[in-house]
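Ligand: 3-amino-D-alanine. Inputs:
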Amino acid sequence: AQPTLAVVGADRPVGTVMRELLSSRRNVWGEVRLVSLDPAAGVSLPCRGVDVPVSPVAPEIFDGVDVAIFDVPEPAAEYWAPVAVERGVTVVDGSAAFRMAPDVPLVVPEVNRQAVRRRPRGIVSGANCTTTSMLMAVAPLHHEYGLRELTLASYQAVSGAGQVGVDVLHDQISKLAGDRTLGSRPGDVRQAVGDDLGPFRAPMALNVVPWIGDLTDGGWSSEEREMRNESRKILGLPDLKVSATCVRVPVVTGHSIAVHAVFGAELSADEARKVLRNAPGVILVDDPEADEFPMPVDAVGTDPSWVGRIRRAMDDPRALDFFVTGDNMRKGSALNTVQIAELVAMESERR
Ligand code: 2RA
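Predicted complex:
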């Protein structure tokens, strides 16, 4: 019999993308149960061409489920994942709750699919959305040339902060529309935007904000620390040097990363292009003369990581600079977790 899947958080934005993916990918699932954290859930939502009732989360909802994908905030994942595991479910969690636990594999299937096999806690984690898109391009180059160091700057969409982030950006843009004066200094949007900053620390419209997540030791944001720690874990390089600066930009969907990667061997931009052309889940878009660059406007709604602007560093023949963009709602979150769930299902079938 085909395995039973539960989607926990099916009514949230990432859950919505998951339902779209389940409706369009090769179907490996028997029953799909849609689950919400909302105790008043009861609506039906479309999935695989039919309306499926959404049940409020409860221990019994996991009875008979083989795999559960969680797209819920960390505290809810911490509470409900063990409840599901207790009932025999393999949990694929998209939150940061378990990512760095040594007994929980952290998986990007194109990079380290074999890691799903060892999951003593019954939980597999998907990585941070920025890390995932970036590693899709970095990992194939690492496998050929041996990665030594990463210097990263991210340009992250407001949807990474949830639907509220998207709503706040749209509200702020509406307030600014048509106003060419914008306060006493051109470009100073603070007054026009007002106090409603939503989940952000500063205005998002017509601005960039070099802060994502919480403050951690040494002034690093939690997002920057996650990029370092998760890259190390997924690539199996515990000593990899990683420095990231994570920045929120007024883009609705699509996280981008400027990457400076130092390798153990010399490589040319053409050699890198050849590797990336053959890498699964990567699209090479690298023709500046024809205005072809990887950008969120093009990557939104697509599965792969878009890579371009590949240059050999001017001062180091072992280093490359390039730009990566990926849809943070798809490969960054929903798609990656759905792929992991499919891997778990396939592997259980083989056993
Ligand atoms: C962000 N990476 O973009 C995070 C998503 N949780 O805010």
